[in-house]
Amino acid sequence: MKKRTPVSEIMSKEVIALTRADDLDRAEMLFKRHNIRHIPVVAEETIIGMLSYSDLLRISFADATNDERNVDFVVYNMFTIEQVMTKNLISVSSNTTIKEAAEILAENEFHALPVVDDSILVGIVTTTDLIKYLLKQF
To answer: Does the keyword Magnesium apply (predicted)?
Structure first.
């Protein structure tokens, strides 16, 4: 296993992102369509927050019932993305080592880290990316 491999080797580079102007219905649609669990929130190319699927579940009944009524629509319209997203983020650069990123994720009990170079969001690295990398080593 290479000890100095940068996260740029395993991060997702084509990042699905939201803006302050997007709503939570759009966020849920993106989570489900792309089978992802974390979406950075950006102002142009600068990250301002992170929304996780767990954040949506906390405020809604998403996937909790098979009820045909759209209860989530009503709940989602009570909140903005900015109210629900995590704001004080820890990010890494694309040359941060995979080991360093794993340590940050483990210590903080995060599941995703934005990858930022020169204040611009260039990717996202998740615990799933780390697990896939480890599996390739065996």
So the answer is: no
Buried b (16+ CB within 10 A) or exposed e, 29-64: ebbeeeebebbbbbeeeebbbbbbbebbeeebebee
Domains of the chain: 7-136 (3.10.580.10)
Cβ(112)–Cβ(126) below 8 Å: yes
pTM: 0.85
Nearest to 129 by CA among 103, 98, 100: 98
Reference 117, options 96, 99, 100; nearest CA is 96
Across the 138 residues of the chain, what is the mean pLDDT of every consecutive 10-residue run? 86 95 94 96 94 88 51 71 93 96 92 95 96 91
- Residue owning tokens 């996937």: 63
